[in-house]
Fold this protein.
Amino acid sequence: MFDADAVDFSQPVALFPLPTVSLLPHALQPLHVFEPRYRSMVIDALGASLTGKFEHAAPIAMATFSGEAWRDSYGGAPALRPVVCVGRIVQHQRLPDGRHDIMLHGVARATIVAMHEADDSRPYRMAELQPLEPLEMPRPRMMRVRRAMHALLARPRLERVIAARHVLDWFARDDVPTHAAIEVAGYALVRNAEARYQLLAEPNAFRRAGIVRDAIVDLERLICMAERQHSADWPKGESWN
């Protein structure tokens, strides 16, 4: 996998915008790339790396549309939210019809500082980016946060959730730093679109842990509400599960 220092922030980075946050640092996101402009983006990013030597591939920044206006201007240049997640390709398969299946590994938060719009020579947008967090900044150990997260995820109700069990395993591993486990937890368990963007845009690891904790508490509350249901209470005969 790659670290944030593997990104050359002195060069513009290709943008792949989607309606909601799809990538966080330390997470892995599979993408099926079928639009012609983004097929070109993948080919350009891979360059000579089409043989599988991804350390030479250019980064791709997963961006997020701002508001709902993108629905009417998707083929153009709809407004983007300022914070992106820079990713590196770690898996690639080119399909016979020209589409691509790729796996992106999130490596860094960054802010858009200048846009390079698509033109005749390049059908996709690029941007000059600035890291949201200092690349050389030492990571806090956050051991108290780690213990609290582990205890929360180990509660009986949450043990029934497959994603929560996987995240609990990350917090139990000595080789996974706390800040990385929090990112994986956020990627897996923070489902609200605005909360996911807040998580991406937050440069402070302790505040990110708070966003993730709140999402886990909300999940446990929903499970508790579902447990107290009776079939007679279900709207139109349906449960909340």
About this structure: Residues 143-227 form one domain. The radius of gyration is 20 Å.
